[in-house]
């Protein structure tokens, strides 16, 4: 009798990582099944922490269910795409029509589609380091190569366009921005955004801008939509309902194209082909887009200093400031703090080992910083979606854990 066949994963998945839901998260589930309560700070899922989608959006979905039972156009329903167009106009972005908008099952699907339609094996894409790991995955799955440009902690995680310029080769096809940034919470100042735009234009690179957190801002941070500055190359901007509108489960995202669309007709046709192959994106969620973008932006109440997100962000900052071991660049946007171990015996600190031991002994789940494609191993990411009391308890446990770890290192 012959041995059972062994089915091996595709080789192009060897470089794909998504540790936010990887071994640590699986171990956390095992601990929960054993009866332990795990404090989870690994995923930016607002509903898991009691945040609700605005009632007007829920009502828009329910009232349009009768129109959402069949497939729609591969690019999405017209009211949703037109709402995105109206939003671009309110931001001073010229030249976007409903034909330039693609709706997707979240931004994640659209990122994968946009890279698949563009890249060949051996091509290169400039990605920020740290990055959101889906971007790296979308590049390597095509056989292309990610080239990381540094966003250094000492610069507040803001990239330097001059450093990027030195990384560009003839194989480079695109430049990716994540602003506001996940995992660091950095919000790029106008001069940095403009520098990256001018670089992409001068080197004939497509510019992809992940702006899913565009309205989640703190203190005096101001988000500069890249499409307001990019005129002389193809520009793709990604947004959606998941974060700003606390509607992750609706799986409704979009990408719109601006700038030199005349240089990309065949590419956009290829993207529409991929959109057609998956038939269409989730239709019920699309009916919430017009209400979301055209209604009251309740996110501003949450991000204000006295709002829930504003207070919880401050709780992370306070927890770090009380620590003997930790530092953090204050997040100015998004939902995360990228925390650094700056205590004694730093040369022995390993973010992966720390995260697993913290989970096993203190039942706190964080994401190692190296999960976000950085070369250093002294950071970890936390979300500040939990309430202030939970965050205070998290940092109390982290401090105790680091006290014990530091004492144990010879």
Search tags:
single chain; 410 residues; alpha/beta; Aspartate Aminotransferase, domain 1; Aspartate Aminotransferase, domain 2; 2 domains; 7-stranded mixed β-sheet; 4-stranded antiparallel β-sheet; 14 helices; 15% strand
Report on the architecture of this protein.
46% of the residues are buried. The strands form 3 sheets. The protein has a 7-stranded mixed beta sheet. Strands 9-10-13-12 form a 4-stranded antiparallel beta sheet. The protein has helices at residues 23-33, 55-63, 78-90, 106-118, 133-140, 161-165, 190-202, 265-277, 283-286, 289-294, 299-303, 308-322, 351-362, 388-408; strands at residues 39-40, 101-104, 124-129, 145-150, 172-178, 206-210, 234-240, 253-259, 326-328, 336-341, 364-365, 367-368, 379-383. The model has no long low-confidence stretch (mean pLDDT 95). The chain has 2 domains: 14-43 and 304-408, Alpha-Beta Complex (Aspartate Aminotransferase, domain 1); 55-294, Type I PLP-dependent aspartate aminotransferase-like (Major domain) (Aspartate Aminotransferase, domain 2), CATH 3.40.640. The chain is built from 14 helices and 13 strands. By secondary structure, the protein is of the alpha/beta class.
């Amino acid at each position: 009798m012959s041995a059972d066949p062994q089915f091996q994963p595709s080789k192009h998945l060897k470089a794909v990582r998504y540790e936010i839901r990887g071994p640590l998260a699986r171990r956390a589930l095992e601990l929960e099944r054993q009866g332990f309560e795990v404090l989870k700070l690994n995923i930016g899922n607002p509903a898991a922490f009691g945040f609700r989608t605005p009632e007007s959006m829920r009502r828009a979905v329910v009232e349009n269910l009768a129109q959402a039972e069949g497939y729609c156009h591969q690019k999405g329903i017209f009211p949703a795409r037109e709402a995105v167009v109206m939003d671009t106009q309110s931001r001073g972005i010229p030249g976007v029509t409903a034909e330039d908008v693609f709706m997707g099952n979240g931004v994640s699907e659209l990122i994968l589609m946009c890279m698949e339609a563009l890249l060949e094996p051996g091509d290169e894409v400039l990605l920020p380091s740290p990055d959101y790991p889906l971007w790296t995955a979308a590049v390597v799955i095509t056989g292309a190569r990610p080239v990381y440009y540094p966003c250094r902690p000492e610069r507040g995680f803001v990239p330097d366009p001059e450093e990027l310029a030195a990384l560009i080769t003839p194989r480079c096809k695109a430049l990716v921005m994540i602003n506001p940034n996940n995992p660091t919470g950095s919000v790029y100042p106008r001069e940095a955004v403009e520098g990256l735009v001018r670089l992409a234009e001068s080197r004939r690179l497509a510019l992809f801008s992940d702006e899913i957190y565009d309205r989640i801002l703190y203190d005096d941070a101001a988000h500069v939509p890249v499409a307001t500055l990019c005129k002389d190359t193809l520009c793709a901007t990604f947004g959606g309902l998941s974060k700003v509108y606390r509607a992750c489960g609706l799986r409704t995202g979009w990408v719109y194209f601006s700038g030199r669309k005349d240089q990309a007709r065949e590419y956009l046709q290829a993207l529409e082909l991929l959109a057609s192959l998956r038939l269409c994106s989730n239709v019920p969620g699309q009916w919430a887009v017009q209400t979301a973008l055209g209604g009251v932006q309740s996110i501003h109440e949450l991000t204000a200093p006295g709002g829930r997100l504003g207070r919880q962000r401050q709780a992370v900052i306070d927890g770090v400031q009380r620590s003997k071991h930790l530092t953090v660049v204050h997040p100015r946007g998004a939902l995360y703090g990228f925390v650094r171990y700056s205590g004694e015996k730093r040369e022995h600190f390993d973010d992966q080992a720390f995260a697993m031991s913290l989970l096993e002994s203190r039942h706190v789940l964080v994401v190692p910083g190296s999960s976000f494609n950085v070369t250093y191993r002294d950071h970890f990411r936390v979300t500040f979606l939990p309430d202030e009391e939970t965050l205070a308890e998290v940092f109390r446990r982290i401090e105790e854990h680091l006290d014990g770890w530091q004492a144990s290192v010879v």
